[in-house]
Design brief:
The model is unreliable at 208-214 and 218-231 (pLDDT under 50). Helices cover 41% and strands 22% of the residues. It has helices spanning 47-68, 94-108, 117-126, 168-178, 186-205, 246-258, 262-288, 303-313, 338-351; strands at 6-12, 16-23, 28-35, 74-82, 112-116, 136-142, 147-153, 156-163, 238-239, 242-243, 292-296, 317-318, 321-322, 324-327. A hairpin with a 2-residue loop joins β12 (317-318) and β13. The two termini are 20 Å apart. The protein has 2 domains: 6-129 and 335-351, ATPase, nucleotide binding domain (Nucleotidyltransferase, domain 5, 2-Layer Sandwich); 136-327, ATPase, nucleotide binding domain (Nucleotidyltransferase, domain 5, 2-Layer Sandwich), CATH 3.30.420.40. The protein has 9 helices and 14 strands. It is α/β, with parallel strands linked by helices.
Length: 353
């Protein structure tokens, strides 16, 4: 009989239907996703609408999986059943993946495992990284619905801080939609911020613009001139390890309504997000004594934010130790089922030892 060496994972977040298959060696056999449809101008979906779309999307993804891999090799099925691994964490959209997963597992005669969406994000980035054998680290989960700073010890996740109101992803999406971009807006907003940064670098090199652009921690004033008056975004306030982001959204909208250049405003927003994360990270390292930091979630797929932080922390240290930050493949930073598949494999292989 052929060895059962594959794990099928399902994740049904608020905006992506995901299915993945990985093998015992950690290779990704299939990473299939379908974005949920959001009408132009809208900033999200009701849970009932998202759940309906997941139920529509899953059959096609499952059929693709059965064509890609021999079903007789599937050793277990895993799914995300809630947003976070804490009591009371619940969103109806995850019922779609759990229900399909349980039926598939029963049909194949294999075990079913359930994890949280957040655990899947962490594992997707950690699994094949330099942190793969690390049991004690700090982590960010930065997405459209969550902006949390976490401490992970032997698989146990504790919240150290993060946003007390909006998430970074919500701010980015809301400003993007306000500018007429299609939801979700992260990729287009990131491209815009990178374009402005590159223009500033080019102009500075050519001597056409005073004050060159540089990476953190300079916090140079960012010119978003409106009718001859320089309107500057204020920094995101950081209190301990907590932040509030609704004020940043309000600032951006107000200045855009006054006539601020949209591209410069996007650049300013991404600069302030990067700076805020740099401050939070240094404080968290100092308070926890842990100098390894994992960045996960869709916001961390931003090339702009990644470059800013990697440059800033390249030479930073804590008590003589380098502060080691780790970003994953951008494709595994956004919502996916790869991490859930990995977690299912971890549980199965460990139970069989």
């Amino acid at each position: 009989m052929q060895n059962r060496d594959l794990i099928l994972g399902l994740d049904t977040s608020n905006y992506t239907t995901s299915l993945a298959i990985t093998d015992i060696g950690g290779e990704i056999i299939l990473d299939a996703r379908k974005l949920l449809t959001v009408k132009q101008g809208e900033r999200g979906l009701r849970q009932s609408h998202a759940l309906f779309q997941h139920m529509e999307n899953l059959p096609a993804l499952i059929l693709e999986a059965m064509k890609t891999a021999d079903k007789n090799r599937i050793a277990a099925v895993a799914a995300s059943g809630r947003p976070r691994p804490v009591e009371g964490s619940y969103m109806p959209v995850f019922k779609a993946g759990v229900n399909y997963g349980k039926v598939m597992a029963a049909s194949l005669g294999v075990p079913f495992f359930e994890f949280s969406h957040q655990e899947g994000h962490l594992e997707a980035v950690k699994h094949n990284s330099a942190f793969s054998e690390t049991n004690d680290y700090l982590a960010y989960h930065l997405s459209g619905g969550t902006s949390e700073l976490l401490k992970v010890t032997n698989g146990q996740i504790n919240i150290l801080g993060g946003s007390r109101d909006l998430s970074f992803g919500q701010v980015i999406d809301r400003i993007g939609v306000f500018l007429g971009m299609a939801f979700p807006c992260g990729r287009e907003m990131d491209r815009t911020a990178l374009s402005v940064r590159d223009k500033l670098n080019t102009n500075s090199t050519a001597g056409k613009e005073s004050g060159s652009y540089s990476a953190l921690p300079g916090q140079e004033k960012i010119d978003t001139t409106v009718n001859g008056n320089s309107q500057l975004l204020k920094k995101i306030p950081v209190s301990g390890l907590e932040i509030n982001l609704s004020g940043m959204e309000t600032q951006c909208r107000r200045e855009l309504e006054k006539g601020a250049d949209p591209e410069r405003m996007v650049f300013a927003l991404f600069r302030h997000i990067s700076s805020c994360l740099a401050v939070l990270t240094e404080r968290a390292v100092q308070e926890s004594g842990c100098s390894r930091v994992l960045f996960t979630g869709g916001v961390t797929a931003s090339s702009f934010i990644r470059n800013e932080l990697e440059t800033f922390f390249k030479s930073r240290s804590f008590e003589g130790r380098t502060i080691q930050i780790m970003f994953g493949d951008p494709a595994l930073s956004s919502d996916n089922a790869v991490g859930i598949s990995y977690l299912g494999g971890n549980s199965l292989w460990q139970s069989n030892r």
